[in-house]
Amino acid sequence: xxxxxxxxxxxxxxxxxxxxxxxxxxxxxxxxxxxxxxxxxxxxxxxxxxxxxxxxxxxxxxxxxxxxxxxxxxxxxxxxxxxxxxxxxxxxxxxxxxxxxxxxxxxxxxxxxxxxxxxxxxxxxxxxxxxxxxxxxxxxxx
Length: 142
Description:
By secondary structure, the protein is an alpha/beta fold.
């Protein structure tokens, strides 16, 4: 990362590593900008930089997409958002610590399509999300 004037944007809807993001950002004197829908409102933000948006399927993604600049860092588990950000010179990191690179867009979208197709084929109709991140998995990424 070349520019220490970068902003750190966090897609905070169901982000499991908010405390770890705070710790890493504080070591670089950066203030993360947490963005979430009102469904994920927190009372204890401790004067941090939080933005709450109306509930909408892509409201957080669009908010971040319209405000980032080249050299910024975005933490999100939304690969579709990552695919839109990387060509703009934005560093995208998943909550598990994976850096998404611009050339991975085609592979990411193909994998997403295959996942969606396999979910449609499930017999019981239940859709399971990501496995819950354990504490040791969080700390390993620091």
